[in-house]
Write a structure and sequence with these properties.
heterodimer, A: 314 residues, alpha/beta, Rossmann fold, 2 domains, 6-stranded mixed sheet, 4-stranded antiparallel sheet, 11 helices, 27% strand, elongated, B: 268 residues, globular
């Protein structure tokens, strides 16, 4: 099916001015996206920012209102079947049939992708092994735990060896140990197959492993880059101050520390210098006016919070 | 190219049918109650007509009823698939979405055929089958009954959003289709309005075809009211039309996106 295309694709996803309008609401607004083949790409943003709509347009399940996109080199408008043959999609909610067994679900998915029964059996074996489910082949899906079902849903999404895998909030609703497990599976899968992965999530610590991330807000990409570069751009440290009467404090510190991000009794400042002596001095100076003062390294969560706060102010 | 995906849908239907034993048992008990309770009961007050008693007259209608319920309920799993999310596996697969409707129609027809054949086996074991019937016509009758009933079912399923109104579907679709056909009484004797309804009901033609197969060899004049050719053409044309309309509706639903919203809970 993919024979007509060059084996080594330059870009797995290339979207230009991709737009989706629902009545007056712009769900996705002139989105530009370029994902090189083989990359692990994270599309991050708050609920309702357009992540899922973007994934559904790229996987040809909904039609864009304007703009264009090529996925695996195929046009999502004119070659939807070739696009769907090249991608795997794991939805936020399960696509599995709970009345069928693990093996029967994979057989169903494989046959829908025109795989031979022998090939389905071979790949099911390999993938279930990789995802730690090989002893569950004949269990009904309804009897699996939430974490196992999620893992199986991913196996279901890659049984046809897609070149690009879309993961829409793959760890939503899972507890921490299960989220970690899912991430290990995805890492192994990428190591084994080299497939391009486009992921949406709002558990940002998970996106740290991405080669590149983009923050989406109100249907527009507001910032993109490697997680490291984005975190570094934020500053060397985050200064957290806890106090009962924060607002005047934030105003008084603004000339020295810049604007703050306020969350309840907590204010967060970006601090660009490695030298912490001024902060120690500040702590002495503030004394009993603050309940706590903490210094820590920034992470992707901070980038997310700052990006969001800048967008909300607009 | 499409054989394996269609086979996948058929296989899933058969696996689920035999796994849901109560559904299968009730699919067998329902026609037997009609035949042995209603058939025997009314048989005591109704005269033999054209050389067959009422129970014999009822046999093709009850066989058709088995195909009707089997195919209808299987076609309605299209709605179950939308609700449970299994539809996601189908819409993301690499083929045009009208194939989902075609495959679902075929799998519903298969369910109807399998259940009609099971009933035939039960009737044969109980000694209620007259071996003088025409087996070629019987095979054609079962196939056309299953296909046209699958057509009715897929049409209803394509326009139905949730199985919450399943009782309404039973009351306003399945029962009228059964009652307003020639399954229980000859349509010639019906009042004009009911007769008109029966004549636009594709199930009437499917049952008539089964009467050709099962009753014609037993009687001189037969109990069928239409010709085999008319029965075949009407049931075939209806099935094709139903698949086209259901496909149109299903892909339109895709285009306007309510389906994908149901499947994704309108998030993100």
């Amino acid at each position: 099916m993919n024979d007509a295309r060059p084996a080594a694709l330059q870009s797995a996803v290339h979207a230009q001015a991709l737009t989706k309008r629902y009545g007056d609401v712009l769900a996705v607004d002139n989105l530009e996206l370029e994902i090189p083949a083989g990359q692990f790409f994270g599309l991050l943003g708050p609920n309702g920012s357009g992540k899922t709509t973007t994934i559904h347009m790229l996987s040809t399940l909904i039609r864009p209102s304007a703009g264009s996109a090529a996925v695996a080199g195929y046009d999502i408008r004119t070659e939807p079947i070739a696009v769907r043959a090249s991608i795997g999609l794991v939805f936020q909610d399960s696509a599995l049939d709970r009345t069928l067994s693990v093996a029967e679900n994979l057989r169903f998915a494989g046959l829908l992708h025109n795989l031979t029964p022998a090939l389905i059996e071979q790949r099911s074996g390999e993938l279930l092994e990789l995802f730690g489910l090989n002893d569950k082949q004949h269990r009904p899906v309804g009897s699996l735990s939430g974490g196992m079902r999620r893992a199986l849903d991913i196996v279901r999404g890659v049984i046809h060896h897609p070149r690009i895998l879309f993961l829409d909030e793959p760890t939503i609703g899972l507890d921490l140990p299960n989220r970690r497990k899912i991430w290990r599976f995805i890492e192994r899968l990428r190591a084994n197959t080299g497939m391009t992965v486009l992921l949406t999530t709002h558990y940002l610590e998970e996106a740290d492993a991405c080669d590149q991330v983009a923050f989406i807000y109100s249907g527009r990409i507001v910032q993109r880059g490697t997680p490291r570069a984005m975190v570094d751009a934020l500053g060397r440290h985050i200064i957290e101050i806890e106090a009962s009467d924060l607002s005047p404090l934030i105003e008084s510190l603004k000339p020295r520390l810049g604007p703050a991000l306020k969350e309840g009794d907590l204010a967060m400042f970006r601090y660009a210098l490695e030298d912490l002596a001024p902060i120690a001095a500040l702590q002495t100076e503030l004394g009993p006016r603050v309940d706590a003062l903490r210094i820590r390294r920034p992470n992707l969560n901070d980038v997310f919070l700052w990006v969001n706060s800048l967008q909300t102010k607009k | 190219m499409m054989l394996r995906p269609i086979y996948a849908v058929l296989e899933r239907e058969v696996v689920r049918m035999f796994r849901q034993r109560t559904r299968l048992v009730s699919a067998m008990v329902r026609p037997l109650i009609w035949l042995f309770v209603i058939g025997a009961g009314f048989g005591t007050v109704l005269a033999r007509a054209n050389g067959v008693d009422y129970q014999q007259f009822l046999a093709p209608g009850v066989l058709g009823m088995t195909a009707l319920f089997g195919a209808m309920l299987a076609a309605l799993t299209l709605v179950y698939d939308k609700e449970s999310g299994v539809m996601r596996m189908l819409i993301i697969a690499p083929f045009a979405h009208y194939w989902i409707i075609i495959a679902k129609t075929l799998s519903a027809a298969l369910a109807g055929m399998v259940q009609a054949l099971l009933l035939l086996v039960i009737l044969a074991v109980l000694g209620y089958l007259d071996w003088k019937m025409s087996f070629a016509l019987l095979a054609l009758g079962i196939v056309m009954a299953a296909l046209s009933c699958a057509g009715i079912g897929i049409l209803v399923a394509a326009f139905t959003r949730t199985l919450d109104n399943f009782a309404a579907i039973m009351n306003f679709v399945i029962f009228p289709v059964f009652f307003l056909s020639g399954a229980l009484y000859p349509i010639a004797n019906l009042p004009a309005l009911l007769k008109l309804v029966a004549m636009v009901n594709p199930f009437t033609y499917a049952v008539d075809l089964l009467k050709h197969a099962m009753l014609a060899p037993l009687t001189q004049s037969g109990t069928s009211e239409l010709s085999v050719a008319v029965d075949f053409i009407v049931t075939a044309a209806f099935t094709v039309l139903a698949v086209i309309v259901a496909s149109w509706r299903f892909s339109r639903e895709q285009g306007y996106e309510p389906l994908i919203h149901i499947l994704t809970g309108k998030r993100g």
